[in-house]
Amino acid sequence: MGITIFPTVEKCTSEGREKHTVVADLDGTLLRSCNSFPYFALVAFDVSGVLRLLFLLLVLPLAGILYYLVSESAGIQVIIFTTFVGMKVSDIESAARAVLPKFYSEDLHPESWRVFSSCGKRCVLTATPRIMVEAFLKDYIGVDIVLGTEIETYKGRATGFVKSPGVLIGKKKAEILQSTFGETQPEIGLGDRHTDIPFMTLCKESYSVPPNPKVKAVTLDKLPKPIIFHDGRLVQKPTPLTALYIILWIPFGFLLSCLRVISASLLPTPLHYYAFRALGARLTIKGNPPPPKKSKDHSGVLFVCCHRTLLDPVFLSAVLGRPIPTVTYSLSRFSELIAPLKTIRLTRDRASDAFVIKKLLEEGDLTICPEGTTSREPFLLRFSSLFAELTDELVPVAMVNKMSMFYGTTARGWKWMDSFFFLMNPRPSYEITFLKKLPYEFTCKSGKSSHEVANYIQKVIAENLSYKCTTLTRKDKYIALAGNDGTVMKKP
């Protein structure tokens, strides 16, 4: 139920607020949507998989009945218990840091953000568990204080229950606000429902945020900090209907994925293109790919692709109609076993790697997919300049893939499932653009350093995809998302 006793947020001026303190509710106030189910569903699926998501969906009617007929607190407690019980606290924190920020950032209310961002000190007061929202609020939109529901833990795992004083609803919001600020009265209070009135009355000015499903979210370029790294499997925010569709599709999607993998493994490479299209995968070719190597006196072509999924070299070979070996620094043993192409794992020893790459290029073409440019990372990472020193036959390849349900990459989950998840999409697609071969003046033979060549290729691919280059590396991504350097160790 909306608030009518306070003026709406549109009437609040944002000028001269640099020294003011603002306190805002989250769902329905700072965010456009008042429904927090999708964010609990994201954590449930990311940490515990489809069964947890199914249980969460099954208890949703009960939670709704309690929420509207008994109390908001009781309904929220049911959702919290079903989502968190038995989870490792570290896994919840990891999901909150790597998965949720992207979805939260796409739902910011423009008028609330206009007022909220204009204030010098920012506080969010929410019934959502603090562990879910703190990473986004503090790291990306500059919130100073996060007051949320605290969950109970035991030996590093969530029990599903909440700590005293319970779910922050109504008077409990006012009490914790008073205990935090003492006699200091915040200048602005923002809320969207009648249970926000107790804490809003403690502020000098109070404004309501009326429900408006047609309001457009704040554009990402207006955020204080861009969200570069993102992890997680789900492409869309899982509303109850979307969650039901995902649960029903997974058994069929997994069988379809296995069929696509088997067809790529058993059929000869010239038939891969037609097999993928027959099984629902769309392949689009742009540009003019170079012909296969015809003479032993010439080096093979090195295709430098921006990384999307582990299937990059598979789809590249499919559109070329011939198998192109690929080199990698890190690949799970299972992915290596099912790969339909020759896959060479490099050792990071420069001399040894150079010898292997040179031999491969003498035999024919080669693919390198420097990790970085996935569909949710709008930038290019640097790739090793080693390859630029060994051949001047360099062809940049820009790749774009589209999926409607599952991402085909992860930094924190089971990487051996990456290919299966991408192929579980109903209609996955790859758009492969062959750019012009590097001109002589941009090669090492012309006097350019290997790093200059690598940076030039990065720039060319980025311009084609309308991406922005950064100096961030693969290691930076894995440290930010998974807390490690992303190396898959090969057992002796």
UniProtKB/TrEMBL annotation:
Membrane topology, from the record: Multi-pass membrane protein
Pfam families in UniProt: Acyltransferase (PF01553), HAD_RAM2_N (PF23270)
Pathway given in the UniProt record: Lipid metabolism; glycerolipid metabolism; Glycerolipid metabolism
Reaction(s) the record says it catalyses: sn-glycerol 3-phosphate + an acyl-CoA = a 1-acyl-sn-glycero-3-phosphate + CoA
EC number: 2.3.1.15
Enzyme class: transferase
Record-level Gene Ontology MF annotations: glycerol-3-phosphate 2-O-acyltransferase activity; glycerol-3-phosphate O-acyltransferase activity; phosphatase activity
Localization, UniProt: Membrane
Keywords annotated in UniProt: Acyltransferase, Membrane, Transferase, Transmembrane, Transmembrane helix
Coarse class of the protein's main subcellular location: membrane
Source taxon at top rank: Eukaryota
Function field: Involved in the production of cutin monomers. Esterifies acyl-group from acyl-ACP to the sn-2 position of glycerol-3-phosphate, a step in cutin biosynthesis. Required for colonization of the root by mycorrhizal fungi, and appropriate hyphopodia and arbuscule formation. Cutin monomers act as plant signals that promote colonization by arbuscular mycorrhizal fungi. This signaling function has been recruited by pathogenic oomycetes to facilitate appressoria formation and their own invasion.
PANTHER family reported in the protein's UniProt record: ANCIENT UBIQUITOUS PROTEIN (PTHR15486), GLYCEROL-3-PHOSPHATE 2-O-ACYLTRANSFERASE 6-LIKE (PTHR15486:SF67)
Family: Belongs to the GPAT/DAPAT family.
Protein name stated in the entry: Glycerol-3-phosphate acyltransferase RAM2
Organism, as annotated: Nicotiana tabacum
Gene: LOC107778932
